[in-house]
Amino acid sequence: MRVLILGGTTEANQLVALLANDPRFDAVLSYAGRTERPTPPPIPWRVGGFGGVDGLTKYLRDQNIARVVDATHPFAAQMSAHAIAACAIASVPLLALERLPWPRMAGDRWIEVDDFVAAAEALGASPRRVFLGIGRMQLAPFASHPQHFYLVRLVDPPRAPLPLPGAELIVARGPFDLAGDRVLLVNHRIDIVVARDAGGDGAFAKIEAARELGLPVVMVRRPLIPARDKVETVGEVLRWLGHDELPAERGV
Ligand code: 3Y8
Ligand code: NAP
């Protein structure tokens, strides 16, 4: 069974590792091509946009894809919306592997906002020491608030000057751990953290470290994604893939 996995997350990599050894599945992992050296998976893979809904629809048909698993990040809303549209047009079943939002725990000091502009404003007027654990693509709104010190973590060294000239950079690829992120916040005397509500484990360390240190977290809420079938665990995806009757000609 030809399966397209829209990846770029820890959960996608876990799913791919389980499918790699199962001869019933001929899966391909897809990356957007955001990072310089995406992790090579143990199955065939492709990198780069499909070319909108039409491009993805054409890919599904040309590649005889029988199922699509959307295991992208909760903020990859455009990819998810394109998958919903293209799978409907091409009549290919789609399932999203969507991790739960992080639960709010006692001791959390979260300031929830709808977008990155609001996140930048939530820092307030008086100068702060801010950890931006939000990657590269949403830094522009913070440039309007130059009174703060920014510590920015990126996957790759920037290829062009960042919109935050005074920022201090850390180049690191997650998943991150509590000890490391706690040291990071303490050593840079950070007094507020900005994060996406990414869910999952790979980005959680800074949230847990902030709670332990009693630091506030400006938490950007997830964008809305149109309705689609979704599950929260890799196991549920495997059941969804395995339950379907394989086409007769494959039954022998
Ligand atoms: C290209 C694939 C694995 C998967 C690792 C997860 C965990 C570590 C935490 C912080 C937060 C951030 C960022 C983050 C995390 C995992 C997972 C996750 C956050 C890679 C990857 C790709 C990307 C794209 C990248 C974005 C950026 C976001 C950095 C690979 C490593 C901030 C999201 O430079 C850029 O253009 C980076 C862009 C989209 C968000 C942004 O706006 O900058 N992810 N991250 C995927 C593709 O091309 O399709 O390179 O191997 C995957 C992972 N990033 O176990 O190996 O599953 O979430 N990724 C956020 O949460 O806000 C870092 O620093 O604390
Ligand atoms: P996005 O804004 O939803 O997508 C923008 C465009 O990038 C899509 O329309 C599509 O181009 C292309 N694209 C996105 N994901 C793709 C994939 N897996 N395979 C092929 N093309 C893809 O996505 P994003 O937020 O930039 O995220 C890009 C990638 O990074 C995704 O794989 C996502 O899982 C991963 N990631 C994102 C975040 C985050 O915070 N956004 C965090 C961790 C990992 P076309 O329209 O041309 O097809």
Explain this structure.
This protein is an alpha/beta fold. It has helices spanning 10-20, 52-62, 77-90, 116-122, 178-187, 205-213, 234-243, and strands at residues 2-6, 26-31, 45-47, 67-70, 94-97, 109-113, 129-132, 149-154, 168-171, 192-196, 216-220, 230-231. Strands 3-2-1-4-5-12 form a six-stranded parallel β-sheet, sandwiched between helices. A six-stranded parallel β-sheet has the order 6-11-10-7-8-9. Strand 4, helix 3 (77-90) and strand 5 (94-97) form a beta-alpha-beta unit. Helix 2 crosses helix 3 (77-90) and helix 5 (178-187) crosses helix 6 (205-213). 34% of the residues are buried. NADP nicotinamide-adenine-dinucleotide phosphate (NAP) binds next to strand 2, helix 2 and helix 3.
Helix fraction, binned, reads 25-40%
Largest sheet: 6 strands, parallel
Count all strands and give the number: 12
**Small-molecule components bound:** ligand 3Y8, NADP nicotinamide-adenine-dinucleotide phosphate
Structural class comes to: alpha/beta
CATH classification, class level of the largest domain: Alpha Beta
Q: What is the name of the CATH architecture of the largest domain? A: 3-Layer(aba) Sandwich
- Average pLDDT level: 94
Number of domains: 2
Kindly report how far apart the N and C termini lie.
14 Å
Uncertain segments are 244-252
Question: Could you say what the CATH topology of the largest domain is called?
Answer: Rossmann fold
Q: Based on CA inertia axes, which overall geometry fits?
A: elongated
Tally of helical runs: 7
Strand content: 15-25%
